[in-house]
Amino acid sequence: MSAFPGMAEGFPDLSGMPAARRAHWGRWLSALLILLVLLAIGRAFARGQIEWAYVARFLTVPVIVDGVVNTIVMSVLAMALGIVLGVLVAVMRLSPNPVLTAVAVGYTWLFRGTPLILQLLLWFNLALVFPTIGIPGLWSGKAVDIMTPLVAALLGLGINQGAYTSEVVRSGLLSVDAGQYEAAQAIGMGHMRALRRIILPQAMRVVLPPIGNEFISLVKATSLASVIQYPEVLHAAENIYYANSRVIELLIVAGLWYLLVVSILTPLQMLLERHFSRGAARVRR
Amino acid sequence: MTRPLVAVRSAVKLFGSYQALKDVSLDVHAGQVLCLVGASGSGKTTLLRCINQLVQLDSGGIWLDGELLGMRQHGGKLHRLSEAEIIRQRLKTGMVFQRFNLFPHKTALENVIEGPVQVQGRKPAEARTAAMELLHRVGLEEKAGSYPSQLSGGQQQRVAIARALSMRPKLMLFDEPTSALDPVLVGEVLAVMKELAREGMTMIVVTHELAFAREVADMVVYMDGGRIVEAGLPDQVLGAPQEARTRAFLSAVLG
User: Is A183 within 8 Å of B102 when comparing Cβ atoms?
Assistant: First the structure.
């Protein structure tokens, strides 16, 4: 090994000296305080006027479990509709065609600009505006029969979700370097193929975390569909406590189920994120 | 004289009120290497992008293989071609970008077979064999399964060259292919390009590598302010420039 010529004296040799561990007293102290607060809250609930036996009993009754299944079904269907609409609208928004852009802007403006519960009520009561709906000359039916709680909830939640998802997808599309689109063009791809094969897969990496956020938000937003008689878990819990007056107990039952469903979603999201981060150099922490 | 593979006539390109190209005309014959040199903003890259139709000319025309690019003459007017026709024309050229622009979510091999399989509809197995041959040509056979982020800049650019070649173009366009590279990585990319030139590929190369231009180019064009200032054999333009602006540029670059 060749040495650096003419090095100054007076600097001690630190090689091989171990690094001391920091004590982190603040962390221990704050953890202890938080634990005490949690214990106090837990004790209060244990001593409060809650019959935990009711919670345990109603947690798995068929009506509640059916409600949970309906909540999951509605979340998945509405999110699927939301993602399809979201991708479509985001692509329209960024298209060079001013008509498509205007439609996309109008859609987002309308469905983000009004409360979700109002949209659900409008869909459910569509029969008041249009007694019969259908495609002229092909097919038609009575709106009361078609706008079941399921259809109204799906349209209300899915179309509203699409408006939010489109902005998330748009941010993802904008995050992809313009050179990627040019490279796709240079190997002979048209606009749509470049989007599908090159731009969207890369946008997914950016889009997934906020989409996961949106999905979790949607799982809980399905509870709003209880106002239009869709039999999801909160609706089921309400129906029971109207009969037995165990309000808090049944709300806790519903709350536990929401927590469980959301907890299952988080690892699923991580799996998806890993899939779409192929080739990404960033170190995962 | 034979018909040139590329003929540019009175090309004009505006970006807003900025004139990127002002009346540029040149010919490139099959098998020739043309090097475009000049300062940033001189219009070299814009000219390259017009030939690949990433941007459209505002006036004048470019003929590739005898065919007017991007437009059709009809009833005394020029009509823009459809996307499908533009793609058909674009497939005659391969483009290599300054910043490589490899698809980061695809491996080196997947980058190279993407065009042949998705655009040209070739069978994946066949495209794979052809792609491995191309990766071998650029010396990266063993990196076929690596993602771009796992490759050095020089390796990425060589994959990008293989990707452009996978479409079997008649003309290769290089947009400052070594400008974004570490000095030690420039050589490996230039070596691949020299080999291509030796095999008879027609190439238009925007570059600041004057030694490369002098060694490989059949013609050198010096551009400034959207115009061709001087064009000719490399020894003339780079060795004994006639124009004061060319001399000023060369002394600035060579120091």
Answer: yes
* Residues of chain B positioned with their CB less than 8 A from the CB of A190: 83-84, 87
Mean pLDDT of B236-251: 94
Q: Report the complex ipTM.
A: 0.92
Whether residue A251 lies within 8 A of chain B, CB to CB, comes out as no
CB contact under 8 A, A187 and B149: no
Q: Is the pTM of this model over 0.90?
A: no
C-beta atoms of B164 and A189 within 8 A: no
The residues near A221 (Cβ < 8 Å, ≥ 6 apart) are A116, A157
Band of residue A283 on the pLDDT scale cut at 50, 70, 90: very low
- Phi, psi dihedral angles at A97 (to 5 degrees): -80, 115
What percent helix, strand, coil does chain A show, rounded to 5? 75, 5, 25
For residues A133 and A49, give the distance between their C-alpha atoms in angstroms, rounded to a whole number: 51
State yes or no: pLDDT of A50 exceeds 70: yes
Task: Tell me the pLDDT band of A188, cut-offs 50, 70 and 90.
Answer: very high
The fold of the A54-284 domain, in CATH, is MetI-like fold (1.10.3720)
Q: Which member of B104, B118, B167 has the closest CB to residue A279? A: B104
- For the beta carbon of residue A187, count every other beta carbon within 10 angstroms: 27
* CB nearest A279 (choices: B52, B106, B118): B106
Q: Which residues have C-beta within 8 Å of that of residue A46, sequence separation ≥ 6? A: A52
Query: Is A76 touching B (CB cutoff 8 A)?
Result: no
Tell me the C-alpha distance between A146 and A161, whole Å.
21
Kindly state the tokens that stand for B144.
């076929």
